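forwarding from the other thread:

> can someone predict this with zinc ion?

sure thing
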Amino acid sequence: VDKVTPAERSRIMSRVRSEDTGPEMVVRKLVHRLGYRFRLHDRKLPGQPDLVFRVRRKVIHVHGCFWHQHACARGNRQPSSRRTYWDAKLARNKARDAANAEKLAAMGWQSLVIWECELGDTEALTRRVEKFLS
Ligand SMILES: [Zn+2]
């Protein structure tokens, strides 16, 4: 049973969400600079992908490593408290990501996942994004 109070939960969620906002902005600016136009968080698509390129039928997800359980140092960080809550929550996130990726693929959409820890290397990131979108 989840014992986090609603107030506590919203505090945790808002902290995590603001952590996720930074990386997404970095990617948005980069893609924008490359001259591509996109929509944000299209609710009609599974998982509301962060950047949506309708004509190309492509989406980019920007994932926080901890929040989406990347296999990297940041993603492997262990919450020091409320382990049951976090373990369940993070496992659900991961399962949801996988399910959404499958649905998108079945609908003919291609996905690119950009992880928070990949944002440091702008050149490599630019190459990946250009290759994916061109
Ligand atoms: Zn990572």
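The mean pLDDT is 88. thats all i got for now
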